[in-house]
Amino acid sequence: MKALAYLAGATAMAMAFTSPAFAQSEIATGANATGISDVHEGMKDVEEAVRDDFDRSADAQRFGPPERQEGVYGSVALSYVGRSGNSENQDFSLSGRLSSNAGAFSQSVGILLEYGEDNSGTTDTEKTSTIYEGLYNINDRFYGFALGRLTTDALADDPVSLDEGDSFEDLDGRMKRDAYFGFGPGYRIINNDTTAWRVQAAVGIRYTKQVNVIDPVAETLETDSDTGVGYLVSSRFYHRFNETVFLTNDTDYLTSDANDTATNELGVNFKMSDAFATRISYKTEYVSDRAIRTDNTLGVSLVYGF
Hints:
Layout: H1 2-17, H2 31-34, H3 36-55, E1 71-83, E2 89-102, E3 105-117, E4 123-137, E5 142-153, E6 175-191, E7 195-215, E8 220-240, E9 245-255, E10 260-273, E11 276-287, E12 294-304
Antiparallel strand pairs: 1-2, 2-3, 3-4, 4-5, 5-6, 6-7, 7-8, 8-9, 9-10, 10-11, 11-12
């Protein structure tokens, strides 16, 4: 019950940080012709990006097993856009998720399909991704988990998929297939009403099929496959300084024969008032086999409702 009380408090606080409502409005008459709709869509993109930034600070497993919907449930979403006239292209995407919860055991499977054609009718996007997540709560502190991902890019070695301004050499290092499946234990080291820290580790199989450009002038390449053991270590840290400020730090490190990948995101959330919240984050991503191994991203999100 104590863990559930902590979770309820944290959930309420997280909701408070995102409670300022974004203004909702109907599309005005004539908006499509005057360009108002385009601006409206851009505004929605910004609002969704801010929501996503705040959502990253949430951790449903922070204080213990959260309450879940029992049984099997899921959702499917489909999007298609076909253009004609000055542009002749089309884009299609399909996503679906199936979840199952039964007592201490929960699992979910997800799939994402992406397909697109350019103005010449040539396929320029053909990607498939599937994920699996499973979790078994032993008690409020110990849990076991399994996770897996498979991503395929049918056009990773095709110049047609290059972005404008890229050269043939930019195909080097792109992944045609990237897969990982691992399992292991997790443990909540600190678990009180102001600080929560949980760590987990997994051992699994990592499979990659990577593009290797042999000669960018002659435009020749090959694909190299690698299968090996992959080790994953993760940390999720949360600390509440007071009723208005909390800090999160999320760290993941995956090592295998293919490469080493590490990410760390430090975030601070401020609740200025019931209507005003800010999140500042700094994310570092490291990939060992890139020319520039480290990318850093500073994010500032602010929401004000009135």
